[in-house]
Amino acid sequence: MKWLVVFFVFSGIILSSFQHKTNLVLVEQIESNFPIVIRYDSIKEYIFRIQFPLMFKVCNISNSNKLMGHISYYYKDIKYALSYEQGWNYNLLVNKEKNGELLTPYRRGRIVIDSLSNEIFVFHTGHSIRYEDSILQSVFRPFISQIKNTGKDTLHIGTIQEFKKKYPEIINLLLQDDSVQFWIYTPWSKDNGNHFILPIEQK
Question: Which strand ranges, in their side-by-side order, compose the sheet holding 127-128?
């Protein structure tokens, strides 16, 4: 019995030590329930941008708070990039989702992921649609009358899944082979963190 007690105490010390040193962060893209947003240019009267709300679940199963940074988006086709620049674009709008609401993810200017927690982040892309792009303009032109009726310059046109059912070829054209990247790391430590490069899923 004495040896059994010693074994359990020793096992508990090892397990506690292992948990303390665990540095695991798990990330997966999940289905987004937020609407796609299109933006309207009232001067030229055309849709010039579409924003996809991409949702990612981040599980911090370590005993340390983490920070997320260096968030960027890669457009496979430069003509759809928000800034028309080659390579990674650092112009994603980031929110945190909680109880169906979009909130700021920042605390004192940093995106913090608490220890032993799950967080859901929404990355809003900024895909540009050129005036002379006859294919995309033909798809989005019917929405212009709805936008004019609202008196605004934006319109919600359904979730990614809903839009994909109607226009699968447009979703492929804009999102296929795109990627997002970011770092998740432990602040004030020698931890190099985890570098994620994730291909975009259409959901």
Answer: 127-128, 46-51, 37-41, 154-156
Q: Which amino acid is at 17?
A: S
Task: Report residue 167 as tokens.
Answer: 């226009």
Query: What is the token pair recorded at 3?
Result: 């040896």
The first and second tokens of residue 157, run together, are 């046109």
Q: Name the residue ranges covered by the structural domains of the chain.
A: 25-199
Reported as a single tens digit per residue, the pLDDT across 171-182 is 999 999 999 999
Rg (CA), the chain: 22
Instruction: State how far the Cα of 134 lies from the Cα of 93, in Å rounded to an integer.
Output: 27
pTM of the model: 0.84
Q: E-strand spans in 42-109?
A: 46-51, 53-60, 66-74, 88-89, 93-98, 101-103, 106-107
Number of H helices, E strands in the chain: 5, 15
CB count in 10 Å sphere of residue 80: 22
